[in-house]
C-alpha cells in the first residue's frame, strides 16, 4: 500500500505543475505572447528531467506564473470596477488559478518532489 501511495503522490506531483504550466501557456497565447506561451508549454518537459536543477527551474517558473496570475487578476478587476461591472467571480477564478500555481511550486519541494528530482541523493538543496 505504501508503494502505491508513493506512486500516486508522484503522479500528482507531475500533474499539478503540468496543468499549471499549460494554463499559463494558454493565458500567454490568448494575450498574444506566443514566445512566452511556447516557453511555458515547453517547461512541461522538465517534469520528466530527474535532476535538482530542473526542480528549481520549475519552481521559479511557477512562482513567476503565480505573480502573473495575481497581476492579471488585479488588472482585470480594476478594469471591471472602473466600468462598474461585477468582478468578484473573476477574482475568485483567477485567485484559484494563482493558488493552484503556487501550490504546484510548493509541491515540487515536498518529499515526493525531492525524491522525483533526486534532490536529496545528490546533496543539492
**Low-confidence blocks of residues:** none
**Strand residue percentage:** under 5%
Structural class: mainly alpha
Major beta-sheet overview: none
Give the proportion of residues in helices.
Answer: over 70%
Q: What is the mean pLDDT?
A: 91
What's the helix count?
6
Spatial shape: elongated
In total, the number of domains comes to 1
Helix/strand order, N-terminal first: HHHHHH
Number of distinct beta strands: 0
How far the N terminus sits from the C terminus, by CA atoms, comes to 29 Å
Rg from C-alpha positions? 16 Å
Structure characterization notes:
With 125 residues, the protein is mainly alpha-helical. The chain has one domain. Helices cover 80% and strands 0% of the residues. It is built from six helices and no strands. The chain has helices spanning 2-30, 34-42, 52-82, 88-108, 111-116, 119-122. The longest helix has 31 residues, at 52-82. It is elongated, with a radius of gyration of 16 Å. The model has no long low-confidence stretch (mean pLDDT 91).
In short:
With 125 residues, the chain is mostly helical. The chain is 80% helix and 0% strand. The chain contains 6 helices and no strands.
Amino acid at each position: 500500500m505504501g508503494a502505491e501511495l508513493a506512486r500516486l503522490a508522484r503522479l500528482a506531483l507531475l500533474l499539478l505543475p503540468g496543468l499549471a504550466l499549460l494554463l499559463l501557456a494558454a493565458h500567454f497565447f490568448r494575450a498574444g505572447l506566443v514566445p512566452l506561451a511556447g516557453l511555458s508549454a515547453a517547461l512541461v518537459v522538465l517534469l520528466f528531467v530527474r535532476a535538482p536543477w530542473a526542480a528549481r527551474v520549475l519552481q521559479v517558473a511557477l512562482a513567476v506564473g503565480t505573480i502573473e496570475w495575481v497581476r492579471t487578476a488585479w488588472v482585470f478587476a480594476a478594469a471591471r470596477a472602473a466600468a462598474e461591472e461585477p468582478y468578484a467571480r473573476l477574482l475568485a477564478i483567477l485567485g484559484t488559478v494563482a493558488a493552484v500555481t503556487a501550490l504546484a511550486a510548493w509541491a515540487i519541494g515536498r518529499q515526493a518532489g525531492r525524491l522525483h528530482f533526486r534532490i536529496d541523493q545528490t546533496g543539492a538543496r
